[in-house]
Amino acid sequence: MADGSIDAQRLMELVIATYHSYETDYEAIERSTETLLRENQTLRGNLSALSQAFDGQKKLFEIVLNNLPLGLSVFDAGQRLTLYNIRFPQLFGLTPEDIAAGATIAELIGKMRGNESTASKTVRQTARTSLAKTGSSSIRRREWQMHDGRIIQSVVTILSDGSSIAIHADITEDRKAAQRITYLAHHDPLTGLPNRMYFREQVDATLAERKPHEQIALVHLNLDRFKSINNTIGVSVGDKILQQVAERIRAWAGSENMLARLGSDEFAILQTGKQQPRNVTALADQIRRALSEPFLNGEKQVTLSVSMGIAIAPENGGEPDILLKNAGVALSHAKADGRKRERFFTGEMEAQMQLRHALEVDLRVAVENEGFELHYQPLYDLAERRTCGFEALIRWNHPVRGRVPPMDFIPLAEEVGLVVDIGRWVLRQACRDAAQWPESIKVAVNVSAIQFRSGNLMQDVSEALAAAGLSPSRLELEITESVLMENLNEVLPILHALRDRGIRISMDDFGTGYSSLSYLSSFPFDKIKIDKSFVNDIVDNKEAHAIMRAIILLGDALGMRVTVEGVETAAQLTLLECEECDEIQGYHISPPRPVRDVPHLLSLPPKSSGATAFPTLER
């Protein structure tokens, strides 16, 4: 047109382009709106002429505008409304009377409402002027907090003469989604507690704001053996218990301290503004007692205990990562010391952790290179007065450290996930060695709970027997009560399958657990091995003798052989012969010996109660 106005068709194209840009990019909104106004400088006052000249295009234009999900409004230089679509009054709760021709911006703001019951309240607004400017126009964004909770965002392009065109959108759901994403990024979805990332940020902020003489305590908590409990009761029930755990800790931690969930069964507390270490010790004691109360799972009760590691700033670290690490180190020592306790971080712990890490590295190398060997301790049949088998016991001769005791590296192997690989190697090597012995000699191998839970024990046993060509009847697997405690329902089918193949199953360390008798009724063990702690006093202590006799009679009644471990004297052997015990094992017969000594041990004469121990072999 000669006066510089754009036609209705062009205006419609620009509005559609603006709407499309709004959906994809806020910055594109601004560019599209600027283009719309730059090409339509004389839109103000000429809209009626435009509609008369292009009546057909005007109707199409109105249809497009009124079907946009976004609101559109145009104000002239006097801040009076000249054009809008149907969505505009809907977004702001305006009536037809409110938006009568010529209504000013100020008048419309005064009439905005979310619903009739809150119409008298003031609508809150925030405004931001965009840094981007094109020509003589500028772009601003405004947000309107409506009474019904909705958030309306307006992108307004203002020309140099004060006229403007704006696009309005309800961004309530987008804002809620963004807030939800932010919340999930910083919180644990199960318990609603802050997560590890957010907790670290808070530790960082708290350390930065710490006053010169203020001490800050960080407590790292871990539920003892919760994975075993979780496997027993099921993950869904375990999650409910974790929620209860979080509530109990939250109640004792109080609102002044920050509680977070760091992992599956790990929590942390940041305690500030307190006299340390006295108050954190009191807090740890309260939490330990709170978690010792049984948790209900239907009619059943689940009992938990907790271990805690404590680090105090600034003594144990002034940086968040250092403080968190040191609390974790203290927690590891609490668990190593028997669990159910708390430990404060000390410098000596750090040195020990460095040694432990080095040992772990060496252990991984030993597993990869099969750097172990097996020693064998005889199992002696008292009735036949002969060695009837050997128990395989792993040994690790470190090239630098020398002999590393099993009690030092087996728990470490369990903790770092190497015990399955080690157990698989022991099975294969023991079967391979036993295949070289007389057919009447069996071999006993210890199997851990982790091999049942995390490995494929049936396959490992089958492959070991097949590779060695060993009869299943010559293999005896020794398990402790903890294997059954892990998950009885999953373990029993495996035990039955092993026994059906002809493999003998023995309960090791009988009498040291809480439920040994109940487990004897759960599975038909071939043998029970009485722990050596029961043997020490059987000669001089009548009560210990009576307990030993009762266990031997129990095994006989159940059709299970009984092996007594830790026999070290002739007097103990004599007493066990009188009680008609089936087998004995201990230093009175022989200590564990390398595989090369097995033929010599088998060639020794029968053992009598009055004789001295077998000749000592070179160790």
Automatic annotation (TrEMBL):
Highest taxon of source: Bacteria
Pfam families with a match to the protein in the record: EAL (PF00563), GGDEF (PF00990), PAS_7 (PF12860)
Protein name, entry field: Diguanylate cyclase (GGDEF)-like protein
Residues covered by the EAL domain: 356-606
UniProt organism field: Rhizobium aethiopicum
InterPro entries named among the record's database cross-references: Biofilm_reg_signaling, EAL_dom, EAL_sf, GGDEF_dom, Nucleotide_cyclase, PAS, PAS-like_dom_sf, Rev_trsase/Diguanyl_cyclase
Residue ranges occupied by any GGDEF domain in the UniProt entry: 214-347
Domain PAS: 57-109
Secretion signal span: none
